[in-house]
């Protein structure tokens, strides 16, 4: 089992599945490209994973409220979108894209309801965008699926890749 | 303020005891769990006393039991049974009781004799102002089969502007609504118009959501919704685009701060969520979730000051199911 961490959050990846932290020092282009937190490579697909932790034990209430407002208003979608697209380009240029990619965003905030998560999932799909132009000109997809989770819905749906807090 | 409602063998309720918040009270629940009945019974009693009318007539007009028989509002059982309605206001109780006997009349104990009665407003699901022309004359002249709440709201909308200086609070509220509906509402004979720089637009040509806000504007402008008033609004979300819910909730919270006690029945997630997000520490908001026990068929409720505390929350559950389906689709088949 591999454990990857981001701030106060950790994800456990089953043994034998290659997984790496993507936005660390090795990235080398942080000055001009955004990056998702982790890339996990399964036999038939990649997971691009982004964690956001507004409920970090050290975070201030005010910052948390600002985040919630921005998140629900969709401002944060922009950030999620660029992180994905830049990571995609980076991997494309590295000739590392050989399988479909699924993009999962985890927002560690207990108060988010499924309705909120669904609205943000829809909005992220539109922003990336998951479908090309209506002309049908795109022969390939830039993302095969994406979804926004909180810790509970992540662990319910992706139970093989459990996420937890390092300190409560 | 209204503090408490107790219902015994009344319509769908066997036993209900609800304590209200002084500010906004939000009722959710499946169809048939009695949300509208709660709004109506409070409205019928309060508006009858305010207008110095007989409570039994008002109940019959608002609920419309067949042949105006109050006994038909007693919870249906075999044999004889008695309904009781008790409402507490400023620490004093008024109670009504009547049986399901055919010629039964209402008995009551009025603890509110010295209470000053403020106006009550009931906004029904269907918007009525566009249908105002001719409706009142028809309603008055004939015994047409229409719930009295529909005629009442038109009457209240027609009341003339309150005399005297407009308070800062009222002006703020009016300005808030004017900026959304982009104009003011005027009435000529039995017709309402939205008036702005471009002219006067008949209400029938105004979007239904805007007419609802126009109605609020009229009720604030003519002083019906002032400190002490009670507002009952059944499904405010009807005909409103989700983006309009935010300003509507802002207006309702503002009204609550100026002393209007509010009761809302809703099926809509965005209404709940907006109250949850917009309420400030000083605001008083209470959520009630009504449900019917599957075995006993009795209606119960659970209440809380936070949206997340209310269980069962059928509205939220519906979204959970959709979200789960959505996630499943987006995981590309890695979960079963």
Could you describe the 3D structure shown?
- The complex is a heterodimer of chains A (168) and B (336).
- With 168 residues, chain A is α/β, with parallel strands linked by helices.
- Chain A starts with a strand and ends with a strand.
- Chain A has one domain (2-165).
- Helix content of chain A is 32%, strand content 23%.
- Chain B has 336 residues and is α/β, with parallel strands linked by helices.
- Chain B has 2 domains: 1-118 and 228-336, P-loop containing nucleotide triphosphate hydrolases (Rossmann fold); 128-226, no CATH class.
- Chain B is 34% helix and 25% strand.
- In chain B, β11, α7 and β12 form a beta-alpha-beta unit.
- Chain B starts with a strand and ends in a 6-residue tail after the last helix.
- Chain A binds chain B through residues 45, 69, 72, 100, 102, 111, 113-118, 121-122, 125, 144-147, 149, 153, 157-158, and chain B through 269, 273, 277, 308, 316, 319-320, 322-324, 326-332, 335.
């Amino acid at each position: 089992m591999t454990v990857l961490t981001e701030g106060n959050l950790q994800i456990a990846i089953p043994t034998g599945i290659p997984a790496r932290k993507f936005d660390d020092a090795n990235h080398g282009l942080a000055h001009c490209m955004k990056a998702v937190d982790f890339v996990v490579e399964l036999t038939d697909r990649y997971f691009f994973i982004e964690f956001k932790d507004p409920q970090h034990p050290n975070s201030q209430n005010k910052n948390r409220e600002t985040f919630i407002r921005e998140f629900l208003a969709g401002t944060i979608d922009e950030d999620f979108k660029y992180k994905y697209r830049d990571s995609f380009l980076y991997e494309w240029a590295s000739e590392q894209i050989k399988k479909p990619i699924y993009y999962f965003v985890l927002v560690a905030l207990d108060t988010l309801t499924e309705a909120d998560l669904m609205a943000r999932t829809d909005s992220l799909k539109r922003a990336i965008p998951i479908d090309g132009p209506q002309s049908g000109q795109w022969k390939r997809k830039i993302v095969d699926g994406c979804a926004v989770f909180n810790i509970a819905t992540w662990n319910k749906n992706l139970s093989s890749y459990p996420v937890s807090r390092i300190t409560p | 303020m209204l503090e408490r409602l107790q219902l015994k063998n009344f319509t769908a309720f066997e036993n209900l005891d609800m304590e209200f918040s002084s500010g906004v009270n939000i009722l959710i629940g499946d169809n048939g769990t009695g949300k509208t009945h709660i709004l109506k019974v409070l409205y019928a009693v309060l508006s009858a006393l305010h207008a110095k009318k007989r409570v039994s007539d008002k109940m019959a007009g608002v609920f419309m039991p067949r042949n105006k028989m109050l006994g038909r509002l007693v919870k249906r059982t075999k044999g004889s049974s008695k309904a009781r309605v008790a409402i507490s206001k400023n620490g004093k109780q008024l109670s009504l009781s009547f049986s399901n006997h055919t010629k039964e009349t209402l008995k009551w104990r009025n603890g509110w004799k010295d209470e000053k009665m403020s106006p009550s407003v009931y906004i029904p699901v269907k918007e009525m102002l566009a249908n105002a022309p001719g409706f009142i004359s028809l309603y008055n002249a004939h015994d047409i089969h229409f719930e009295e709440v529909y005629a009442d709201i038109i009457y209240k909308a027609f009341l003339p502007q309150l005399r005297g200086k407009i308070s800062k609070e009222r002006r703020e509220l009016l300005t808030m609504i004017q900026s959304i509906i982009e104009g003011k509402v005027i009435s000529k004979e039995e017709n309402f118009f939205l008036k702005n720089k471009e002219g006067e637009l008949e209400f029938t040509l105004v979007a239904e959501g805007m007419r609802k806000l126009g109605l609020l504007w009229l009720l604030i402008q003519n002083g019906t919704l002032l400190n002490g008033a009670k507002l009952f609004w059944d499904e405010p979300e009807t005909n409103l685009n989700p983006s309009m819910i935010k300003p509507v909730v802002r207006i309702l919270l503002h009204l609550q701060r100026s002393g209007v006690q509010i009761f809302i029945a809703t099926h809509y997630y965005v209404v709940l969520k907006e109250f949850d997000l917009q309420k400030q520490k000083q605001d008083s908001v209470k959520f009630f979730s009504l449900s019917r026990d599957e075995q006993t068929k009795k209606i119960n409720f659970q209440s809380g000051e936070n949206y997340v505390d209310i269980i069962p929350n059928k509205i939220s559950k519906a979204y959970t199911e959709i979200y789960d389906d959505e996630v499943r689709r987006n995981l590309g088949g890695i979960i079963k």
